[in-house]
Write a structure and sequence with these properties.
The chain has 248 residues and is mostly helical. It contains 11 helices and 3 strands, in the order H-H-H-H-H-H-H-H-H-H-E-E-E-H. The chain has a 3-stranded antiparallel β-sheet. A hairpin with a 6-residue loop joins strand 1 and strand 2. The longest helix is centred in the first third of the chain and has 22 residues.
Length: 248
Amino acid sequence: MAARNPLEPPVHRYPLTNPATDPGLAEAQRLLGHEFTRPGLLREALTHRSAARPRAAGRRGTGSNERLEFVGDRVLGLLIAEWVIERFPEEQEGELGVRLASLVSGPVLAAIAESIGLAPALTVSAGESRAGVRKRATVLADAMEAAIGALYLDGGLDPARRFVRAAWEAVMTAQTEPPKDAKTALQEWAQKHGLPLPDYQLASREGPPHAPVFVVTVTVGNRTGTGTAGTKRAAEQLAAIDLLALPA
């Protein structure tokens, strides 16, 4: 069997779909600023797991956006890292790392997805739709990452970069100073409000030794945040960011 040329785009078995007959898909293309050569990628990016259909014998199913979310997470991290290095040439790793963690955090992803109007384009099951799943921050954040993954797989880094720089411009511009370390900021917030110090707990550790996934929760009073990352320290930072982003 001949090896595939690594310079050729991979073949993906995504469901056939057509923006001309799918208004939601056409609108999503407009929001992302990219006309997909493989619109099935975008349809999968916008499909919540509740609406995924398993493959039947001789037929293709419709996958959820979880695989594209995996890709988009890495692409977004690369593009934001590239951007902060360019924008803040005098800053060192620690400051840049804090900026990166904030800019790719779940709350920021969800806020951007909501601000561009991505929620109505999501395909969810009828039951989840009635339950308001499109409004959940985690669902919006996952869909945003998946859409970026679809952009990358369809057109490469250029369309993904154009979208990220346009969508994240306001958040990036607002970061005149490096954000405080999230754990420090959360501790100061708790002290200011006369609350107990943050309590961090390791909720789970999964994955192989070379690629672990840590889930950490942090509680202050009756508020809880959750963070997921490849290290416990990073998961704690994301948990602190998640709690600080909760409505007052």
